[in-house]
Design brief:
The protein has 460 residues and is α/β, with parallel strands linked by helices. It has three domains: 231 residues, Phosphoenolpyruvate-binding domains (TIM Barrel); 81 residues, M1 Pyruvate Kinase, Domain 3 (Beta Barrel), CATH 2.40.33; 122 residues, Pyruvate Kinase, Chain: A, domain 1. The chain is 36% helix and 23% strand. It contains 16 helices and 23 strands. The strands form five sheets. Strands 1-2-3-14-15-16-17-18 form an eight-stranded parallel beta barrel, surrounded by five helices. A six-stranded mixed beta sheet has the order 6-5-10-9-8-12. Helix 4 runs parallel beside helix 6. The protein is elongated and about 80 Å long. The two termini are 31 Å apart.
Length: 460
């Protein structure tokens, strides 16, 4: 698994960014927090340190958020009005303004929640302008927390308007980013529209409500990456349905070989403790067993003073888990006879050589998704001139991908040899052999022009 780190107030210093970028090259900035100027400054700083780092800009969605600027204490059984724009005057009853309109409701809902399902309210009355509800516990409402009503749907017209407005402002401010995070994606229409407008950006669709689950296959088809936001999704479909929903989305992503990110509360226990809780460890292990590509850290690295300890712990845990898996697998021989190799390669590649590194040189890389999908190999090294392919598969757990500006076709063998020599220590880290596949202009029905067995000794 890879690590996607959210940058916030505690991790924004240049010294902090350098330490983080030594561990991962996937960073996220959240458009729902901080000013556009902050986003411009932080993304410029990141790209200056690491030009090849992939930055996800998570753009604010249409989910209503509480607009209280200060902490607001709410008592158990206290009645509250939640309203968009219009203030409701009802004696001493507290009124909490919302950032967005109340979502559309197909069924009568009895409950709403605040802060990813953490605090529950029983609904007394609901209209287009306000919700009157009673709190089921005493708690302190922090500023700008999300409100969820199970089973609700969101206006696509409002989504499109808000997303385009924010992206236009982001471009005007020259915010640097490689990927766009679309919140509450409910079908493929919005994905296709944004993708057509921003052809050079990775489109990451966030699955966060019942409609997103219902249309998951078509959303995956038109998205570059899928993110499962467990906080909103659990609050929208009820927590008892969350486990099966996560498994469903991951399974469908794997069928289409689309990278999948799992977000929300992956290591919250380490925000207050020095070690991860047993439940967090089991959670991450389970995600690993499902072949999740990337784990996202949110509050853990944006506002926690333990941010770097958390990143280091997760990186170490992932590496140890990977080593344990490798120890259980079949280990290939140090050297392989070429005739034996060709025979086995064509007859039973996945069974006999699943641990060998597989190296692909591909200019356009359009066949890559199908190729990865058909192979059980999880140790791919990909060299391509296609910048979008390089961006998208930076999020894939199966691949280590390298962007090349231009292929030297006149001295092709020498060119390939030099490119491989630059990363030979990574390729031959655990095996003394590797499979090289070079694709340039494949014939109809074929996937490659050249298949070669490489040995570590070739690169001394």
């Amino acid at each position: 698994m890879k690590i996607l780190v959210t940058i916030g107030p505690v991790s924004e210093r240049e010294s902090s960014l350098k330490k983080i970028l030594n561990i991962t090259n996937l960073l996220r900035v959240n458009g729902s927090h901080n000013s556009l100027i902050w986003h411009k400054n932080i993304t410029t700083k990141i790209k200056k340190i690491s030009p090849n780092c992939k930055i996800l800009l998570d753009i604010p969605g249409v989910k209503p958020r509480t607009m209280n600027k200060k902490d607001l204490f709410i008592e158990k059984n206290e009645k509250i009005f939640f309203s968009y724009k219009k203030k409701i005057f009802k004696g001493n009853i507290k009124n909490v303004h919302l950032s967005n309109p109340i979502p559309q409701l197909k069924n009568k809902n009895r409950y709403l929640s605040i802060s990813d399902g953490l605090y529950l309210f029983k609904i007394i009355k609901i209209s287009k302008e306000y919700i009157q509800a009673v709190s089921l516990q005493s708690f302190t409402l922090k500023p700008f927390k999300g409100l969820n009503i199970p089973g609700s749907t969101y206006s696509e017209i409002l989504q499109k308007k808000k997303y385009l407005d924010f992206l236009k402002k982001s471009n005007n401010k020259k915010i640097l980013f490689d990927a766009i995070g679309l919140s509450f994606v409910q079908n493929q229409n919005l994905v296709k529209y944004i993708k057509n407008k921003f052809k050079d950006k990775i489109i990451i669709s966030k699955i966060e409500n019942i409609l997103g689950l219902k249309n998951i296959d078509s959303i995956i088809k038109y998205s570059d990456v899928i993110m499962i936001d467990r906080g909103d999704l659990g609050a929208e479909i009820k927590s008892e349905n969350l486990y099966s929903a996560i498994d469903l989305v991951i399974e469908r992503c794997k069928k289409q070989n689309t990278p999948v990110i799992v977000a929300t509360e992956n290591l919250n226990s380490m925000m207050r403790d020095t070690e991860a809780s047993k439940s967090d460890i089991v959670n991450i292990s389970h995600l690993g067993s499902l072949n999740v590509d990337t784990i996202m850290l949110s509050d853990e690295t944006a506002i926690s003073k333990n941010y770097f300890k958390i990143i280091k712990w997760l990186d170490s845990f992932i590496n140890k888990t990977k080593q344990l898996e490798n120890d259980k697998k079949y280990k290939s021989e140090n050297t392989i006879n070429h005739k034996e190799f060709l025979f086995k390669f064509y007859n039973n590649l996945n069974k006999n050589f699943k641990d060998l590194p597989l190296i692909l040189f591909t200019k356009k890389g359009y066949f890559l998704k199908d190729y990865l999908n058909s192979s059980s190999n999880k140790n791919f090294f990909i060299f391509t001139t296609n910048k979008m392919i390089e961006k998208i598969y930076s999020f894939s757990n199966k691949t280590k991908i390298f962007y090349i500006k231009k292929f030297n076709n006149k001295r092709l063998n020498f060119f390939i040899y030099n490119e491989l020599r630059k990363v030979k220590d990574e390729i031959f880290k655990k095996n003394k052999s590797a499979i090289l596949i070079y694709t340039n202009y494949p014939r109809k029905g074929s996937k490659a022009n050249n298949i070669t067995l490489l040995n570590k000794d070739d690169f001394k």
